[in-house]
Automatic annotation (TrEMBL):
It comes from Hallella bergensis DSM 17361. It holds the Pfam family HTS. The active site is at 142 (acyl-thioester intermediate), 235 (proton acceptor), 237. The record marks 192 as: Important for substrate specificity. GO terms for biological process: L-methionine biosynthetic process from homoserine via O-succinyl-L-homoserine and cystathionine. It catalyses: L-homoserine + acetyl-CoA = O-acetyl-L-homoserine + CoA. Its main location: cytoplasm. It is found in: Cytoplasm. This is Homoserine O-acetyltransferase. Pathway: Amino-acid biosynthesis; L-methionine biosynthesis via de novo pathway; O-acetyl-L-homoserine from L-homoserine: step 1/1. One of its GO terms (cellular component) is cytoplasm. Transfers an acetyl group from acetyl-CoA to L-homoserine, forming acetyl-L-homoserine. Substrate binds at residues 163, 192, 249.
């Protein structure tokens, strides 16, 4: 089954070329089913790229979903056309009046700021608190994961000596969790960050469980509230060329840019990236939608609490 998306969203044509089945609103209206309602708070600078990355993964499920994009009133994006934001995004003040089966909160390039110094921190806290009573399950990605763990559980972040940049091997720690159904003993996850959270802090909080980690990149997935919250420190949603674009964008402009590890063929940036994470990324998002959203959300969406 396809995703139900706003008419003329750029991701639709991009994904159709990849033979991914998506459906615009006009066609979806004739299907007599209740689609899952998924909201995405997209904090990344390149909105269209992130929209496409997430929709690509959400589409790999037999369930129909209605996807809505959320924006902040306290922040104006600088890298996305105003027309795009007006056409496809709605303020939190509008979307908060509804309940949602799932919510995804993306990363943001602000991790080196203290949380309280982020211009939209107050609004972010309001959204996080709202999600606990209005959303069945929420995925927090990268900066959002650090922000959520800090806001709800007081977990601090720490600056890294150098950027965690590349594709790193992860181990699922609780193999029989539904989120890992069909997983191998190890999986790969892209990382691109300057800060980290630490297991010792998480272990002090009984409500939190580290469910995947790496000897190189550390804690990668934390679960809370029996799967109503997941915190990913990496970017399983990344497209094959995302790290390549980031590396070539920053090379020669910053003094801390290194070749992303475990990414290029023969570790040579002049060669193509080797994609090692996409199958598990598709599987994880499908498992989240099936086991933690679809199987848990009430048919009457207003009963979410």
């Amino acid at each position: 089954m396809p995703l139900r998306l706003p008419d003329r969203l750029p991701a639709i044509e991009i994904l159709k070329k990849e033979n991914i089945f998506v459906m615009n609103e006009s066609r979806a209206h004739i299907q007599m089913v209740r689609p899952l309602k998924i909201a995405i708070l997209n904090l990344m600078p390149l909105k269209i790229t992130t929209e496409t990355d997430l929709i690509r993964l959400l589409s790999n499920t037999p369930l129909q979903m209605e996807v809505n994009f959320m924006k902040l009133k306290s922040h104006t994006p600088k890298n996305t056309p105003v027309e795009h934001m007006k056409m496809f995004y709605k303020d939190f003040d509008v979307l908060k009046l509804q309940k949602w089966d799932g919510l995804i909160v993306t990363g943001a390039p602000i991790e080196q700021l203290d949380f309280e110094d982020v211009e939209y921190w107050d609004e972010i806290k309001e959204i996080f608190d709202w999600a606990r009573t209005h959303v069945t399950s929420t995925l927090y990605i990268c900066w959002a994961a650090q922000a959520g763990l800090y806001h709800f559980y007081g977990i601090p972040k720490y600056p890294l000596r150098k950027k965690m940049f590349g594709i790193f091997r992860q181990t699922p720690l609780i193999q029989d969790l539904p989120i890992f159904r069909g997983f191998d003993d190890v999986f790969m996850m892209p990382h691109s960050r300057h800060t980290e959270i630490r297991r010792k802090d998480i272990e002090r909080v009984p409500e939190l469980t580290v469910i995947a980690e790496s000897p190189e990149s550390g804690v990668s997935i934390v679960m809370a509230r029996n799967g109503r919250e997941f915190f990913f420190t990496g970017h399983l949603e990344y497209a094959p060329d995302t790290l390549d674009k980031e590396y070539k964008r920053d090379f020669g402009k910053r003094n801390d840019v290194e070749i992303p590890l475990n990414y290029y063929l023969d570790n040579d940036p002049n060669k193509s990236p080797i994609v090692t994470w996409r199958s598990h990324a598709n599987l994880l998002f499908s498992n989240w939608i099936n086991y933690y959203v679809y199987q848990e959300t009430p048919y009457n969406i207003d009963e979410i609490e």
